Every structure is written in structure tokens, then in C-alpha cells.
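Example 248, ligand S-adenosyl-L-homocysteine.
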Amino acid sequence: MRIGIISAMREEIQAILQVLEVHKKSTKGMRTYFEGTLFGKDVVIVFSRWGKVASATTVTQLLNDFKIKEILFTGVAGAIHPEVSIGDIIIGEELYQHDLDGSPLVATYEVPLLGLRSFATHEENRNKLKKACIHFLENIHKYLDQDKLAEFDILEPDIHTGDIASGDQFISNKEQISAILSGLPQVKCVEMEGAAVAQVCYEYNVPYSIVRTISDNANHNAHVDFPKFASDVASIYALAILENYLID
Ligand code: SAH
């Protein structure tokens, strides 16, 4: 049984692929699945592309074609909570689809027939992930030099455990943020895949965790140097968190 590791973007898995001891590579439905060993554990790694459909189909393929005991999604996200800054880490607790609204037939955000408005990540893995993130941030300078952190204004990165909202929109203005916060005031960050992966894992009864590095404040600057942040910072965060999580 292996751990399935998913990110949305190629840039985000770049650093991981450099360390992965690849045993087999296969391409299905325009996604490449890398089977191998990472920090002594058997894993399958894939990048899904952005959005709920792309990530839902990818995780479904992963669960059906590879023996997976656990899913870990790593990636970047936009902060929408005032306490959250660029470079912080969010460990997902409940995952919501902020663009799902079947009201008045079912409640806003509710997934029809499941009767759920959100999906909870696996508690034990979440705690293990938190320990891994704490350990990484205590040793961040081993992985990223001060100049690189300063380039992206990352001062004292923090870890937050909390709710995440996913939707098929890149959030880049105040109106979009207010619309999300009016229904989900507790949400820490926005992204485009987490809740879709969570729904599929829930339906297949496979434990999952979501960990996100904050890349932007979901405002008009949200697009600035995005690919560079993903490859220079977020992919290093992902690799370092995985190292601490998998070695344990
Ligand atoms: N690299 C792209 C930007 C990617 S943004 C570029 O060239 O500009 C989309 C990806 O980042 C998605 O996978 C999503 O999950 C995440 N993301 C980061 N910030 C986001 C935001 N403000 N709103 C929505 N998704 C965001």
C-alpha cells in the first residue's frame, strides 16, 4: 500500500521529482503517475492540473489503479483570513466547495445525496502533518536561504490548522473574498482543488490530508510571479514537509 501525493501544478512537484527514486512512470488521461520511493516510503506522485474536475479525475484514477492507503495533497493557496500571510502553511481541517450551491433544493455548499457541506481531513494524519510542518519551519534555513525568503517578503512563517474553500475560480479581488467569507467566515484560504479531492476520498473511504503554502492574498496582486513562487518556494516547502512527514 502506497501514499498518493498530488499537487495541481507541475512547478509544485518539481523539487519532489528530483528526489524521488522512480520505479515506474505511466500516463493516463493526460496525467503522468510516478511510482517510486520517497524518503523510504512507497509513493505515487502526480500533478492534476488546476480545478475541481482535473483534480477529481486524477485522484479517482490514482485510487482505482494504484494501491493507495492515504492521499496527501500539497500546493499553493490564496489567503483570505487577516491572520494569514504569504509563506504561511495551512493544514486543512474541513474542506468546502465555495462555488457549490444547490439551494433552495439543498443547503448552500451541500453536496447532493451525501448531505454534507464539508469534508473533514484525517485527524491523526493532520496532527502528524502539523508536527512535520513545525519541524520544517524550525529548520527553514536549511531548505531556503534568507535572500529567497526576503524576495517574497516571507518573514516569520506560521502554521494554521483550519478550513479551506475550493472553487473553480482564481480569487483576485475583494468582492470575491467578501462573497466567500459571507458564507464561510472561518475559512483561512482559497484554492481550486482541495474539496474536490476530499469528496472523492470520502466516497472511496480513503484518509486524506491537504497542506497549502500561501502564495498570495487573493487580491489584485495575486498573479504576480506566480510560477516563480511555486517552483522556488512552494515546491521546496512541499519537499521539506514531506521529508519530515514520511521519515517520522
Ligand atoms: N501558475 C499560474 C497561477 C496558478 S493559480 C500562473 O501562471 O499565473 C491556480 C493554482 O493555485 C490552483 O491550483 C489553486 O489551487 C492555487 N491558488 C493559489 N492562489 C489562489 C487564489 N488566489 N485563488 C484560487 N486558487 C489559488
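Summary: The domain at 75-246 is CATH 3.40.50.1580 (Rossmann fold).
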